[in-house]
Specification:
Elements (H helix, E strand, L loop, with lengths): L1 E5 L3 H13 L3 E5 L2 H10 L4 E5 L7 H9 L6 E5 L4 H9 L4 E4 L4 H15 L6 E4 L2 E4 L4 E4 L2 E2 L4 H12 L7 H9 L9 H13 L8 E4 L3 E4 L8
Parallel strand pairs: 1-2, 1-3, 3-4, 4-5
Antiparallel strand pairs: 6-7, 7-8, 8-9, 10-11
Length: about 230
């Protein structure tokens, strides 16, 4: 899942970006309200973590402008603990509210809760042949065998599974999984695919992850298993 943090305090932003990244999220960061609103309106985010005190535009202005065009889930952050500030944030369309200082685990739980609500219309269980993927539990099994995947390997598998039978280019994969525009000469995708394939396909098992030369990769069951 892809998150946007709009926070001008570098220490807080770095802490959240690192912590959420370790939990498998792809995270973008904006240090002011103007840049944050631009990213929120042009990017495809599952949730936004939005500070109320920002340079350029404050968090309430960002939220109001965002709500005029999108319903992306938003968690407001603020150092204030006044009831009227919380009411203003919620009244402007915030989905949740946290007062600084807060526990990272509490923020993580709230992010998980609002992204579940935001994706309620999407399937949380995906089946591709004998491969079963539980997007909420972040777990994948094949014929009862649990796949011991890293956070990025699971994100890669989930990206392919959500668009099963569709070819994903290396560019799409890097933007979806790493949220970085890698140099086209890098082999990061090939390395990640190789590692995922080694865990996904044991000897004797049907191939599910296919390379389409010159185009990208696709997850699907095929009649003809030749690469």
């Amino acid at each position: 899942m892809k998150l946007l943090i709009i926070e001008d305090e570098a220490k807080t932003a770095g802490y959240l970006t690192r912590g959420l990244g370790e939990e498998g999220y792809s995270v973008d960061h904006a240090a002011n309200g103007v840049d944050g609103l631009h990213l929120a309106l042009t990017g495809d985010y599952d949730a936004v973590v939005l500070d109320i005190m920002l340079p350029g535009m404050d968090g309430l202005q960002v939220l109001q402008a965002l709500r005029a065009q999108r319903d992306t889930p938003v968690i407001m952050l603020t150092a204030r603990d006044q009831v009227d500030d919380r009411l203003r944030g919620l009244g402007a369309g915030a989905d949740d509210y946290l007062v600084k200082p807060f526990s990272f685990l509490e923020l993580l739980a709230r992010v998980q809760a609002i992204t579940r609500r935001g994706r309620a219309h999407e399937a949380t269980q995906i089946q591709v042949g004998d491969l079963h993927i539980d997007l909420l539990a972040r777990r994948a099994t094949r014929r009862g065998r649990r796949l011991n995947l890293s956070a990025k390997e699971f994100a890669l598998l989930a990206a392919l599974a959500r668009r099963r039978s569709q070819i994903l280019s290396k560019t799409v994969i890097t933007e979806t999984v790493w949220d970085i525009n890698f140099d086209t000469n890098t082999n990061v995708v090939e390395v990640a695919i190789k590692r995922l394939r080694a865990k996904l396909e044991y000897p004797g098992e049907t191939k599910l992850l296919h390379t389409v030369r010159g185009m990208g990769y696709v997850l699907e069951v095929r009649e003809d298993q030749a690469e």
